[in-house]
Amino acid sequence: MSEAADAEGIAYKREHPARAALRRLFHHRLFVTGLILFGIIAGIAAAAPWIAGVDPQRLSMRNKFLPPGETWLFGTDNFGRSLWSRVVWGAQLSMVIGASVVALNAVFGTLIGAAAGYFRRLDNALMRVNDALMAFPAILLAIAVTSVLGPSTLNVILALSIVYIPRTARIVRSSVIVLREMEYVQAAVAAGAGHWRILRHHILPNAMAPMIVQLSFLFAYAVLSEATLSFLGVGAVPPTPTWGNIMAEGRDFMREAPWIITIPGVALMITVMGLNLLGDGLRDVLDPRLRIQQ
Amino acid sequence: MIGVAARRSLSAIPVLLIVSLISFGLMRLIPGDPAAAIAGVAATPAQIEQLRRDLGLDQPFHMQLLEYYGGLARGDLGRSLLLGKGVFAATMERLPVTIGLSLYALVFTLLIGIASGIVAALRQNSIIDQAAMMFAMIGISVPNFFLGLLMIILFAVHLGWLPSGGYVPFSQDPAGWLASTTMPAFSLALLQAGLLARITRSSMLEVLRQDYIRTARAKGLPQRQVILKHALANALIPIVTVVGIIVSLLLSGAVVTEALFSLPGMGQLLTQAVLSRDYPMVQGGLLLVTTFLVLVNITVDVLYALLDPRVRYE
């Protein structure tokens, strides 16, 4: 049946669903605001080698505690290091850690969630381990894991992935369980399609929407948790310029140089808020069930 | 009711078993020789050997596991290397501080979250609604340690109204306790308050659309009664389900808040244990906190069944 000869006989071209979703997204005010906020930080992070200027580790005791101004855009810290350079490189590290945690979650969350939701025999065992990992308070588990593995950027990524993959897997699993019982999946089974084909072509593409929403919030949690870990002293080792490290070092000087704390704090807030707005927009557009409640 | 409690408690058993296994396994994941790592660089080989024996790390793996569960059965969670006392005793000493802080933060969370959610829902799409949701968005986006730092700069350093850290036990001086915990509790509460405001708003909007609300209004009941008695009672049901999540977030957040405001609670205990490689303390403390959280979640589920009769018959 051609698209032009629809039930009502009205000639119109049906829009591709992905295109329709994109169009709705770009009309969603909050999503666009989030995209701009996140885009600014991501852009700064990507351009770090060209815009940071001086080395973030370069000490200059003559220039310590200079307030933000013309020569030093964001001022300097207790060692006379350029705060602009440190915050810019910190943005890059936050983005790298956030994106890595999201990527690991996308891969392993999907694998575990799909296995548990599709193969009933695996469900119980996988979900009990999942529940156990989710029972730990998130930050505490991340702290414990990084303390065992040793503080480093890579170990922070690993620790945050261990904490968040079970949450992603649970979301994928619940979509897969619903989709598995759909008639078109039953039809594919009846037509003799193998498990791999059914999962790849019939189930997972339809389970993507809630996962994409989850991943955008996860990016926010990961950036926030990384900052928290390094603020507590169990993240990337100082003097690595992470936002959490800069703020932890600035704590002792908050009377004379409050900008050391406030500037990376505001950068962190902009990133997290941008991602949260992005996630809200994606949820409104991609997940119709949740949209009704809004 | 009792059925729900029993079912939930039963399902918690495998979870707690795995939680205890993970806690046990953590210390064995230390790369290289755990005893050497715990003892530090300055330790002599004899000291390392001694520590290995004390921690039971010289035993074969299955014996270590047996010993561990034997200890758990006797209520023995191991001894803290740093404090030289039992993990259970050390945790119990610190727990009241964390529970007090979390309860205080929970009060802030419920007051701010539910009130702004209701106000936003009643004036949907108005300026008030947008302001409330903007506030909620800021709440869930500001890291609690950053908010805490800003509050210290403003209220402790510049205005000098509140102490920047330290702790006064409630039993000693209630006013002092209030002064020492107000900033931590508020900075801890804002994230959860933001979440709760959003959930309350959408739950209220859902309920306000129902026919029985229209009936209540049609028969001339005052607005106050319609909102507080008819709408809120039902809007609260989904809110109760997130209390478990809120408590979990509060406990997680308390770790950072306690470190920031130097409050001698569970969070500070565990952070210090991590930083000084007191692994028996980390392992036991993690297990205790998580068990506590699992119990809170069971209570929440039972409460849910109490509020919503439909759950009981599922």
UniProtKB/TrEMBL annotation, chain A:
It is a multi-pass membrane protein. The chain crosses the membrane at residues 30-52, 93-119, 139-164, 211-237, 257-279. It is found in: Cell membrane. Residues 91-279 form the ABC transmembrane type-1 domain. This is ABC transporter permease. Keywords: Cell membrane, Membrane, Transmembrane, Transmembrane helix, Transport. Belongs to the binding-protein-dependent transport system permease family. One of its GO terms (biological process) is transmembrane transport. The lineage of its organism: Bacteria, Pseudomonadati, Pseudomonadota, Alphaproteobacteria, Acetobacterales. InterPro entries: BP-dependent_transpt_permease, MetI-like, MetI-like_sf, OppC_N. One of its GO terms (cellular component) is plasma membrane. Signal peptide: none annotated. PANTHER family: ABC TRANSPORTER PERMEASE PROTEIN, OLIGOPEPTIDE TRANSPORT SYSTEM PERMEASE PROTEIN APPC. It comes from the Bacteria.
